[in-house]
Amino acid sequence: MTSLRLRDRDAVITDDKLIFRVYGYSHPPEAYICDVEYASSSVFKSEDSRAFRQKGKQIYYKFYSDQGLRFVREKCPQYTVWYVPLQTRLVGLRLNQIGEIRKPDKKFQQLLEKQPRDNLLRALQTLSSLILERAGLCETDFGVFGSLLQGFYHPQFSDLDLVLYGGEKLRRLRETLETLYKERSSYMRNEFGTEEAVKEKVKRWRFVNYSPKEYSWHQRRKTIYALFQDENSGRSIKTEFEPVKEWSEIHNEYDSRTRILKKGWVKAVARITDDCEAPFMPSIYGVEIKRILEGVKADDVQRIISYLEEFRMQAEKNEEVYVEGNLEQVITQAKTFHQVTLTYGPRYYEQVLKVTKSSP
Predict the structure, then answer these.
(1) Which range of residues forms the domain containing residue 80?
(2) Are residues 281 and 209 in the same domain?
(3) Are residues 169 and 202 located together in one domain of the fold?
(4) Cis omega (within 30 of 0) on the bond before 28?
(5) What average pLDDT score do residues 99-125 get?
(6) pTM (two decimals)
């Protein structure tokens, strides 16, 4: 098997200018499961006002929700790979389809070393210095994603999208951010500290079992979504810290002998027993099912696994949650169990994972 030289959030670009992100850490031999993020205007155009990106004369559009999945299936099925455990094709690239690789950590280093030529890069360097000093972290612990990684950011409008590598470093970062949010003299605030953060989202809100108010509460306590008040530009810049595993934490768990069988839709109440993998993609929560409200009455549901960013870091150990999604049976060489999966698909907006009773 090819060594895992790419990890979550690394960008891979095809020759026809489709930009994918490597998704997660478990992949088939000679291939990577991916999520398509951007496409050149020569192959895709979006009516969404948020989607437009430009790099010189080249125009790109960003995919939102399951738009990218549908685009690949309908227009570019060559960018799918056979995933044996599910006996289906998933969005992904074989090694010979990758034309270029962009790594968040290397790009971050390059941006810090540059003499900043615009306010966004100045803000990135100022913010980085503050976080590195206060959290006791190193430059090599961070990366950038989104428009900063791809090189088509807008100095006046783009966000600061950062990657942080490692679970223990995430704990230190979150503690630091909590402190900075409370300091009046700090330039950092929790993005979801007020209701302003969800006003724009309400217009496009489509989740059926998850209200904007609930979303705001969950996002606020994650602490990784910030506003950085930049003195140079005079604007409040949305800033995100995306957790990614460092190399020592990564294990490729792909096994062609495993089978994952769909069992139908399920609604359940559960207690979180393990949240160690909650910050990463996919987010995995160990659970004890309290009640199955609707669906197959499986008595061996061991975990909730989410491929949706909305439900990353959504619940903590010992909290009670309501979950609605796809019940799956997982059959491995060692054991058989069930899991509830939240993922891209036809019932995308019916899915939910939310806290009903928080821990003390």
Answers:
(1) 11-101
(2) no
(3) yes
(4) no
(5) 95
(6) 0.93
